[in-house]
């Protein structure tokens, strides 16, 4: 049993009710909750002085805090975590929310990228937060690879997949690369790549380079390394992450503080870090909630992230969808929205494949 679970189980009914009502009141309004407000809503008739004593005890336990000089209390991060883990009542998905998500994704035309872009727009619109969508790696078999020189220090690597999908990215070729060495590198890769997915190619390519060192010159070897690294490194990460609805967060600036929102915007620009974090969701199924500093990416902005992985037809986790906003999120409503969206995305991608 975690410390929070034990703490919750040791509370008497009155203390638990005061705690639950303070947190729920704060999540609903964003304002501190005072003892007089609570005495009007408690299930048993108690005095304001009694409620104040209970609130003081909860503050001593580190679950509530007093902002500024207000007589009311708000939950601390530890308090929010305990509420989410032990007292949160997750609602049924509201019909209107379901319809808005279904309508957005019902236009099942275009490529997966277009679908996931619409998913992000739907999530941010329904939740009024910012949405994060981690797209799956493109796992169709490779048909053709080509290197195209653009300038002395820039080249394009083009991947054509068997399903007709084409990806191209700019990269910095090794010093001295020539059209001839680029052709040699492409020929070497094409001989190995046909019929393999990008992931499969990545696991065999370097072994083949070592085994056939005499067949390919140093420049072509370096080209192969630097060209494929674009997909395995930052390039792919930036391509895979879709962020929508940043402007929704500005509405929170009055209560959350403009500097916090600015910090969050800066965090959202560092897409590679967010991708690495979202890939952690591949360790387990279901919706996960990260509050404040539990999520090191957004700790400075005091934000929460509700995220769920989605799976393909083989029940393999291939991406994630999530919503980020202030810690004062309506968790009971947003959890089922994120859960439903993740399941729907998995089904749509499975149907396409």
From TrEMBL:
Pfam families: HrcA. One of its GO terms (biological process) is negative regulation of DNA-templated transcription. GO terms for molecular function: DNA binding. SUPFAM superfamilies: GAF domain-like, Winged helix' DNA-binding domain. Keywords: Repressor, Stress response, Transcription, Transcription regulation. Negative regulator of class I heat shock genes (grpE-dnaK-dnaJ and groELS operons). Prevents heat-shock induction of these operons. This is Heat-inducible transcription repressor HrcA. It comes from Lentibacter algarum. The lineage of its organism: Bacteria, Pseudomonadati, Pseudomonadota, Alphaproteobacteria, Rhodobacterales.
